[in-house]
Design goal:
Blueprint: E1 3-7, H1 11-23, E2 27-31, H2 34-44, E3 48-51, E4 54-55, E5 58-59, H3 61-69, E6 78-82, H4 87-96, E7 100-103, H5 108-123, E8 130-133, E9 136-139, E10 144-147, E11 150-152, H6 156-167, H7 175-182, H8 191-206, E12 213-216, E13 220-223
Parallel strand pairs: 1-2, 1-3, 3-6, 6-7
Antiparallel strand pairs: 4-5, 8-9, 9-10, 10-11, 12-13
Helix pairs in contact: 2-3, 6-8, 7-8
């Protein structure tokens, strides 16, 4: 059971969400506007938030900002539901600190499954701020990368790709998995080519350490560890 805050200007949808979530065993709080949503978020500190940012009295993203500014609410999952489902709206939601995005209209079954997934993630320990793989160090919080102590400038996608590979070091990640986890499944062209070109740029920018990003033919990519016995960096395929 979770305490869920629903913030949506649509009274009918608020009622439907309250009924569905209550039947699923959750405690539900409702707000129709941004000010009321921020007040409830600050006082009750919900376990989960379902938010439509299109509110009459302000921008619903203020709720996300208020939660992230409070140490108690930094890990509170926020699921944004919005009829404005274009890329700009999704990017705005994630940049504000949202954890998931569902375009309207949506099925209640999908909503419950996504909320359940967010609950599982919330119960897991937070990932480390710094992930190291041989000479490569990725500072998640600062969005910085260094190789042997020297700063490396990466684009957002390159850094996200490196972080995924570093967190799953030694495990092969298929191109399909990387497209889903790094690009959110949204690419304008062939996903495999996008991954391949990003890996190529990443290897070049990492210099000698770029060989740690290895190709597993027919399977995908893996971030390997330096050869402990020889101290050599493995060659990429």
């Amino acid at each position: 059971m979770a305490r869920i805050l629903v913030i949506d200007a649509d009274a009918a949808l608020r009622a439907e969400l309250a009924r569905t979530l209550t039947q699923a065993g959750h405690d539900v709080e409702l707000a129709a506007g941004a000010r009321a949503g921020v007040a409830l978020a600050r006082t009750s500190m919900p376990d989960l938030v379902v938010l439509d940012p299109s509110l009459q009295d302000g921008d619903g993203m203020e709720v996300v900002v208020a939660l992230r500014a409070d140490p108690r609410g930094r890990r509170t999952p926020v699921l944004v539901v919005s009829a404005a489902s274009g890329e700009d709206e999704r990017v705005r939601a994630f940049e504000a600190g949202a954890d998931d995005f569902i375009p309207k209209p949506f099925s209640m079954r999908e909503l419950l499954l996504r909320l359940r997934a967010q609950q599982r993630r919330r119960s897991s320990p937070p990932p480390p701020d710094v992930v190291a793989a041989g000479p490569i160090v990725v500072d998640r919080a600062a969005r910085r990368v260094s190789v042997s102590g020297v700063a490396v400038s990466l684009t957002r996608r390159e850094l996200d790709l490196l972080l995924v590979l570093a967190e799953r070091r030694g495990r092969v990640q298929s191109r399909e998995v990387l497209v889903a986890d790094v690009w959110g499944g949204e690419v304008d062209e062939d996903g495999g080519r996008v991954v391949d070109s990003t890996v190529k740029r990443l290897r070049r920018k990492l210099g000698a350490a770029g060989g740690l990003v290895t190709t597993v033919r027919g399977a995908g990519y893996r971030l390997a560890a330096p050869d402990d016995a020889t101290g050599r960096t493995p060659r990429s395929a």
